[in-house]
């Protein structure tokens, strides 16, 4: 199990003379669609597909309901969903009203275990992988 | 005939209170006021399981099983470089941050600084969390309590 990367040529416009540089870019794999995810979970848990779909949707609804009421929803082995509020500072206490809030956003923060797993994941050069397959 | 439109009220609500802040990064370090968010009680796995069980009439044990399998599946697919679409929630995917080097030969696993798990909420969920859909209640009493050290 490893992430694949390819070498990407890029121009550094922010540097004088706009020199060229090279960077590792992740190779995107096919997206796992909702149906495929539900089927995968149903197969791994032996639960009926309809039950898995209902559970997944109910979990999503619960996250939404709690988050929009200011709760932080934490999952022990995954991470937490929470709102992020961006607001501005004002000079007086009287001005400090609800209209100083500029934006509210839903955020997700993965927990340390997930971060550790991600950072331990191996990396393979896509080009070398293809070369070895052709040999 | 005149068309009637139904406008729904805010979907959610949060409580905020004004707080004095010192802007240390500005010259003269001026004091200003800004709203501080009073977070509601954090919700854990069990609360979500209980809610889902109530909504779906599925036993809590099955919900827990499905929930664990869901998060394991997201991690498994993301570690393989795949994006995962979760019904009613959004998409999880991996992002890789790497440093720029002078030659193509120098590019390797060691130039990758970190990998991040990103979450892109579905449009409906994003809309529900927007400013216009959340009522902001200002609780001035909280500020006074905090100022008095209570």
Write the layout of secondary structure elements.
The complex is a heterodimer of chains A (135) and B (150).
Chain A: E1 2-11, E2 20-26, H1 34-45, H2 49-67, E3 73-75, E4 79-87, E5 101-110, H3 112-120, E6 122-125, H4 126-134
Parallel strand pairs in A: 1-6
Antiparallel strand pairs in A: 1-2, 3-4, 4-5
Chain B: E1 12-22, E2 31-38, H1 45-56, H2 60-79, E3 84-86, E4 90-98, E5 112-121, H3 123-128, E6 134-138, H4 140-147
Parallel strand pairs in B: 1-6
Antiparallel strand pairs in B: 1-2, 3-4, 4-5
Helix pairs in contact in B: 1-2
Short account of what is shown:
By secondary structure, chain A is α+β, with helices and mostly antiparallel strands. Chain A contains four helices and six strands.
Number of domains of chain B: 1
Radius of gyration of chain A: 22 Å
Number of DSSP helical runs of chain B: 4
Write the CATH homologous superfamily of chain B.
IHF-like DNA-binding proteins
Task: Explain what you see.
- The complex is a heterodimer of chains A (135) and B (150).
- Chain A contains 4 helices and 6 strands; from the N terminus they run ββααβββαβα.
- The mean pLDDT of chain A is 88.
- In chain A, a hairpin with a 3-residue loop joins strand 3 and strand 4 (79-87).
- Chain A is flat, with a radius of gyration of 22 Å.
- In chain A, the strands form 2 sheets. A 3-stranded mixed beta sheet of chain A has the order 2-1-6. Chain A has a 3-stranded antiparallel beta sheet with strand order 3-4-5.
- With 135 residues, chain A is α+β, with helices and mostly antiparallel strands.
- Chain A has a domain at 32-70.
- Chain B has 150 residues and is α+β, with helices and mostly antiparallel strands.
- Chain B has one domain (12-147): HU Protein, Chain A.
- Chain B is flat.
- Residues 1-7 of chain B have low confidence and may be disordered.
- At the A-B interface, strand 1, strand 2, helix 1, helix 2 and strand 3 of A face strand 1, strand 2, helix 1, helix 2 and strand 3 of B.
